[in-house]
Amino acid sequence: MLTVFVRREYKDLCEEIRRVIEKSANRCVEVDVVNNLEELKSRLEKLQAEEVFLLFFVGPNVLSELKKLCRDVKSLDELVMHVTGTFTNERIVILTTSSDDERVLLEFKAMYEVTPRQLDILKVTSRDLRFLMNELKRLITLGYSKALLGSPDLLLSSSEVEELFLEVVGVKGGFSFINALEVLGEVFSVRGEGSKPSSFEIKRILPCIADSTKIRVIAQLDASIGKVLPYLYLHFKNSKYLESLGVLTFLTNRGEMVSLYSSGKVCIVKVDSEHRAEEMLRELLMLISKAYEAYVRLGPVREDTLEARRRLNVMSIYWLLPKTNCRACGEPGCMAFAFKLLSGETQISKCKPLLEEPKFKDAYEKLKAMMSSPIGW
Length: 377
Hints:
Elements: E1 2-7, H1 14-25, E2 29-34, H2 37-45, E3 51-54, H3 60-69, E4 73-75, H4 76-86, E5 91-96, H5 99-112, E6 119-123, H6 129-141, E7 144-149, H7 152-156, H8 158-168, E8 176-179, H9 180-188, E9 200-207, E10 215-221, H10 229-235, E11 239-242, E12 247-251, E13 257-261, E14 265-271, H11 274-298, H12 303-310, H13 314-318, H14 334-343, H15 352-356, H16 361-371
Parallel strand pairs: 1-2, 1-3, 3-4, 5-6, 5-7, 7-8
Antiparallel strand pairs: 9-10, 10-14, 11-12, 12-13, 13-14
């Protein structure tokens, strides 16, 4: 059972929303109304075993709080991350009729963007669609190529919106609409977190924005990976983890940037070829398998372990090094060594004073613990 919550202002649309989402997500759906955040928290505490989707935006901080009450809660925030990660080189306008959603989006849109200025937010009234069309005409001239329908009333009237667009604006000319419910269907069509992924499918191959000699690859694993992302975060030392949104991004030692989504989507940027991307995806599957083994053996990553990982950076490594700049490691100095250790380009064993001098024994043990991986890869 999938429980969907909508804001109070859309209470008259509940039954229609239920029918549409059941068709899109291919499962039984119950739609209900919440009046405020406190009521939502109370409801989630009673639905701990259920899968929940919030058909509105709450922002990453609130979403993080809600996931502590109900691990299987998703929101429109995560769908936007899914969309921006899929269309990384396109500018997208999010359409909403909710003032609350507009406020959240304006506050956090920079966190949802994969590339700078990728998103714009347009608040409209469902009764003034012609105003919407005129605004879209303006945004098209600014380079926007997609519009995400992000509120229940617009989702349900998507055909009307597209027809009016053709009437007022004319030929689409590459501009297209994204229905959030279709994205929801993609997310929920992936097997749940009870099973680890065993295969991948490359969905799109695109030019790389940062380097015209390289490509970007978007792939989908055949199962979600949300519960093992914390283990992958512990493994990849040079990574960023947006926990509430379920996105982990890291750099390889060849300069490729990889983003892993809890839904199982994988985006690889600045990669040389499709062959190299497939090689990376196969390696990721093996690594994720190791992460699942660790999860089964050890359970969820403890909060104090995650907190220690959040504090890991170049300076926390540097202060544990001898700071003599002896160059025995082959680097110009200890700071350069710290950078390469964090990026995975060198190993602790290269620092001879740390290993061989008794006065550095405690620092060595601390650094070894910081840089170890529970996956054992």
